[in-house]
Specification:
The protein has three helices and three strands; from the N terminus they run H-E-E-H-E-H. By secondary structure, the protein is an alpha+beta fold. A three-stranded mixed sheet has the order 1-2-3, with helices on one face. The longest helix is centred in the N-terminal third of the chain and has 15 residues. It is globular and about 40 Å long. The relative contact order is 0.22.
Length: 106
């Protein structure tokens, strides 16, 4: 995989993550700051560390599965591994300015 191909796939990963929403929040998980790490390996395997707004989120399984299915559908991604992590603990300061504005935190 060339550096250009890797960059294109990584950009596509971010685009796809911006299509995943928590059903209770009108902002995508990327802009909410729920994505902690995106690592695309040379062999096409993709590792993503993400968290939730709350550890007991009732939509956790739905969100994680939506992420995995969408990432697996990206051309150039051989296999995706979505790791649900809770450290560091998420807080609203991790949101993008756009998300804060959308949710009325500004």
């Amino acid at each position: 995989m060339t550096p250009e191909e890797k960059l294109n796939i990584e950009e596509r990963v971010v685009e796809v993550l911006k299509t995943v929403y928590d059903p209770e929040i009108p902002v995508d998980i990327y802009n909410l700051g729920l994505i902690y790490r995106i690592e695309l390996h040379e062999d096409g395997n993709l590792d993503v560390d993400m968290t939730l707004t709350a550890p007991n989120c009732p939509a956790a399984d739905f969100i994680v599965e939506d992420v995995r299915i969408k990432l697996d559908g990206i051309e150039g991604v051989k296999d995706s591994h979505v790791n649900l992590v809770f450290e560091p603990e998420w807080d609203k300061e991790m949101m993008s300015e756009e998300a804060k504005l959308e949710l009325g935190f500004m």
